[in-house]
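Usage

Read records sequentially. Each one opens with the input sequence:
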Amino acid sequence: MLATFVQAIDFEEERLFKGNAGTITIRVLSSTDISVFAPTITGFLNTNPELNVEYLVVGSADINTLIRQSPEQYDIVISSAMDLQLKLVNDGYALQVDTIIHPEWAQWRQSLYGFTLEPAGIVINKQHFSNIKAPTSRQEMIEVLRENPDTFKGKIATYDVRQSGLGYLFATQDARDSETYWRLMEIMGSLDAKLYCCSGEMIDDLSTGDMAIAYNVLTSYASARADVADEIQWILPSDFSNVMMRTVLVSKQTEHRKSAIAFVRYLTSLAVGNPTAKEFALPSLRNAATQGSVISLEPGLMIFLDRLKRRTFLNEWESAIIQ
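and closes with the structure output:
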């Protein structure tokens, strides 16, 4: 018999949240930082004290790998990569939960539930723009970079779409909606753009001044960082902004079906309600401040997951940004 290869992935963060009388532990595999999701887990355990929650954080692409390798190891999957989540449902990895009342546009097959609305935007370090007008669109960003190459050489941040599931989703949506995306990638590449796994790390380097400008950052992460509010500013592009939904599913092979469903019910109730910041630190589905085009939960999202299309897209992306 051939040995099965299992990829080893180190978790970026791990934490066990204990209920007051916790006897059952549900495992949540997520791409959302613990600091962001902790209030929601605490609120859930306040109403379900018999449970514990083991919360494990990895990148969105790694989530897809782990679930496909060992679906029985995790009860709940939360990810910002809508396309990869949709593919997991399509391939039979999700449990259908048909008793949740949720907007039709924010769910798919009663198995995948969107619970946030989070636009991608431009984030800048204010000091670097003290004498330069901040861009309000992709075209203006191109012009600013071209006119100030010495200022921005090596100071531009964006996702490494080869490694980041969310970064790849935003990139393919951008390329589909506007040819400006490819011109922007070329000018960023000519100025030695730095590639990142996630929004949080980009924001960290923007706050210290190591980076001057970042593209396609989650504005929800930027606005939540009160500790760096004096150093950074986020901008929604006026031409268009893609808005993603963070999604949740229950693993079809969960050993704690009832408890996992209870968690998803609690999470989706917050998403459509009017939660306080102490309960829910992310923009809910009722986020009135959201402006942009919400990426739909539909089969078309899986087009760019086709191996040939993905390889073609990544080849073009590498040619543009890795010069």
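Summary fields computed downstream for this record:
- The domain at 13-117+246-291 is CATH 3.40.190.10 (D-Maltodextrin-Binding Protein; domain 2).
- The longest strand covers residues 118-125.
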